[in-house]
Amino acid sequence: MTENQSERDVKIRMTPERALLSRGPADKVAENIATEQNRLQTQPKNRMTAREMESTTALCDTFVPSIKASLECSISTQAFYETSASMVGTPEILGGYLSEKLRHPLLWLLRTALWLLSTWYGTFILCGIKSLSGNFPYFQRFSQVEVKHREEIVLNWSLSYFTILRMLFRAMKFLVHLIYFTQLDESNQNHAWKALDYCGPDPGHADQITISNSQSDADRLGPLYQALAYNLRPPQLLLPAQKSKPTTISCDVVVVGSGAGGGVVAGVLARAGYKVIVLEKGGYNARSNLSLLEGPSLDQMYEANGFLATDDMGMLILAGSTVGGGTAINWSASFRTPDHVISEWKNEHGLDLFGSEAYAEAMDIVCNRMGVETGKVPPECESLSTSVLRRGCRELGHKVNDIPCNAPRNHDCGWCCFGCRRGHKKGTQETWLVDLLESGNGVILTGCKAIRVAHEERGHRRRVATGVLCQYGHGSSDMTLFVESKMTVVACGAINTPVLLKRSGLKNPNIGKHLRLHPVVMAWGHFPNCEKKSYEGAILTAMAKVKSKDGYGAVIQTPSLHPGMFSALTPWVSSADFKFQMTRFSRTAHIFTLVRDRGSGTVDSSGNIRYRMDPRDELTLKKGIEKMIRIMEAAGAEEIGTQHCKGDKVRAKSVSSHDFEEFVKTVKGRDYRGLTTPICSAHQMGSCRMGKNEKTSVVDERGESWEVEGLYLADSSIVPTAIGVNPMVTIQSIAYCVSQSILQELRRKIPKQSKANV
């Protein structure tokens, strides 16, 4: 880097006025990072009406009431049983989320239901005869119904013939439990953690923060702190968007998104000497700046604050929304694109890229840059769930495959779903975006939301991308920027990319279609005598397979579940049973089945997600569920269960073989498409897929839009079909190939001496 660059001031040509996009010194960056994190952690204001809050409080205390605890319990367990949701302020926090943070197409319906429950007639309509009192005038509001009867009512909702009532149960159960077990007091502690035998954030993280003053700025603030652009000067340009014209910044390439796709493209192009600006709507969370607390991490690092779901609440969706995108919060699995998938894309979809030397080389480069390691993880570093998976498969004679990861094999951090405190997990924020920084050719604008891609007509029926209009906000300041570029790259994920394209006026009918989600269902087993705790150890290091002749099978792997997500997925058949299950949190192992889905969904212009599972995918899930139950039994689980709303479970060590087989038959015969079992997705892909022509796809084999010249997509949205394993390496490899296509165009169109000055 040059002397001027070491001062971290990067000039970008602005019109009509000149301004400076600065990367401040370390202390300024630290201040800005802290400001951004405090803003994100600020509790939303509760704007619910008194009627809505009456019903919200009653529902919270129905799902989490105060219960008389056994005298044999520990003091912390007694306190947990006797503490209701309203006693710790859960209804008020939930009211804030419903008022300001949650974004769902049917949120209005939920609030209407809450209002109806505050009336006697609405309560009777939604709750039936169980809401009636034995005394005149008989009809009651929901809050007036006895807790015992309220529990019976909400349990009936979970099994109701009416979809709307099942949706009401699913939504409120998920929200109440997730907030109750992630909310924090003034000491950043949760009232229930001791009863759950949960330590909170990684204890090693506190040790690291203690010595942070002696660390380098890169170790303390993360390797990208010098690349973060926080201030646009002069100050007079910091005007509300509606009161000023957009400030124009010129560069060679603008990249929307910093995840598995955008990070790669930005790093490759910057190292090639082109001036790159990365727009990231999330914040920068790195190393000692990570909280490793479940609630704040969901707020700061996940799409929709961790509350993203399909329109019918049938599937919970987890996606990254931070610098590094999903690579910052995923579980480090690093699979090359499976051979049978490559063959399908080449032979059935006519995409010659796949199976080519260029794509094979791209996978090699990507795996090398991420430091992907193979081989077995030391047993002491594996999690309880992984140990169970290995032991159960060994007893049954099933093959277990080691999972390659972009972290050292002794990396045993169970909190990596909230970011990697050591920087050992090599997401794009630790690799490709570092290349961008070290090149001296790029900056990252965090808190910057793309509004639309600009394009103009040049010649007969030829539209050309000219840049991105975006909303840039930090602290109390907001402004509109127009990033003028010679090439535009959209890489904001399979959920957000189609929304941005539609908002930008693109008309290709394939935009937002063909969405694949890799549906996941889980099974659990209780291991009371195991020394390991469920949240400790490497998250994802081993897997088994559910084979299929057509390549659309499933894999069986292990999840990361901290108290909030554990509670949100745990069946609720009564408050007493639920609290009992929660006290066993630290000794409960989970494994999941992930299906390579044939079915698909859509993303509309507002970001609403619709997905309907294909019956064949449901059959594959059922095969996986049977295999998971047998693995748990073979591993020695004392009790085994599923997450079906009926709370199916069996005492595996005391039941007869006949009864055990009846249990397996029962859970395998359940319906998994009717809001009866929580289904999750951590992989979204295919919503703007690559193809041979514009009738069936959104981009060509080079990643360029069929509609707009100079507009490239480089993220999970362009994957042709579901992959069947974690898609990170595949996305990065495709993005690497797209970056090579962009380089060819840049070299053709832009003489070296005329590159934009950054």
From TrEMBL:
It comes from Rhynchospora pubera. Residues 299-520 form the Glucose-methanol-choline oxidoreductase N-terminal domain. Its EC number is 1.1.3.20. One of its GO terms (cellular component) is membrane. GO terms for molecular function: flavin adenine dinucleotide binding; long-chain-alcohol oxidase activity. The active site is at residue 683. It comes from the Eukaryota. This is Long-chain-alcohol oxidase. Keywords: FAD, Flavoprotein, Membrane, Oxidoreductase, Transmembrane, Transmembrane helix.
